[in-house]
Design goal:
GO terms for molecular function: hexosyltransferase activity. It is an enzyme of class 2 (transferase). This protein is an alpha/beta fold and 213 residues long. It has a domain of 139 residues. It is built from 8 helices and 5 strands, in the order ααβαβααβαβαβα. Strand 3, helix 6 and strand 4 form a beta-alpha-beta unit. Helix 1 packs across helix 2. The longest helix is centred in the middle third of the chain and has 15 residues. The chain is globular, with a radius of gyration of 20 Å.
Length: 213
């Protein structure tokens, strides 16, 4: 993400008419960013996921999955599937973008109809669009799964010890007298340089205008 101070400096210099070539590039990117988090439409939206299928859901595993990863989704269902809802009130939800091939989308529709655990919006499914994928499930949870207490976000190439994680989350819950306060638990990477090299997938934001050659 762009540093908010950098954006502020660029806009201030624009206002005063003092801006260099690099800041012009940044300004062009900033002005092109769409701020509407709901700009993309649902192509698959499991409206009954938390109301009917998993009405007593406590732990939701959200998986960022690539459209063609049918085998990975099948494997994760076998590991964290329906049996965990019955024993631990835990369910799995896959988040997808739009594939470029119609045949893949047809298979996804069949898969979603069978398992009822896929949500999808109409942005192109790509590494650069991971932010939109995250916004999709955040919107889904906010609108459809408000009663879920804990969200465990993973990618479809990750397997974790669900028993250890649930025990850890229960320990957090037990220390709270009332409602568990909102929090994000994750690994924090500190003092890492921002990637600016064009062609590198870690290039900041993913806009080539901000990446050097």
């Amino acid at each position: 993400m762009l540093d908010i101070d950098v954006i502020g400096t660029v806009h201030e210099n624009l206002r005063k008419g003092r801006i260099d070539r690099e800041q012009k590039r940044i300004a062009k990117v900033v002005n092109s960013v769409q701020t509407d988090p709901y700009r993309y439409k649902w192509t698959l939206n499991q409206g009954n996921f938390c109301n009917a299928y998993y009405s007593d859901l406590k732990y939701l595993i959200v998986v960022h999955s690539a459209t063609g990863h049918f085998d990975r989704r099948r494997m994760l269902r076998r590991i964290y599937g329906l049996h965990f809802y019955e024993t631990h009130r835990c369910a799995i939800l896959f988040v997808l973008g739009q594939p470029t091939e119609k045949s893949v989308q047809k298979r996804i529709h069949k898969e979603a109809y069978q398992y009822k655990d896929i949500i999808q919006q109409d942005f192109v499914d790509s590494y650069r669009n991971l932010t939109w994928k995250a916004l999709a499930w955040l919107r889904f949870v906010d609108e459809r799964c408000k009663r879920v207490k804990f969200i465990i976000k993973i990618d479809d190439d990750v397997i974790f010890n669900i028993f250890t994680v649930i025990d850890f989350l229960k320990s957090i819950e037990s220390t709270q007298k009332d409602e568990v306060e909102p929090r994000i638990i994750c690994r924090v990477i500190r003092n890492r340089k921002i990637g600016r090299k064009r062609g590198n997938k870690w290039c900041s934001i993913g806009y080539s205008l901000l990446c050097s050659s």
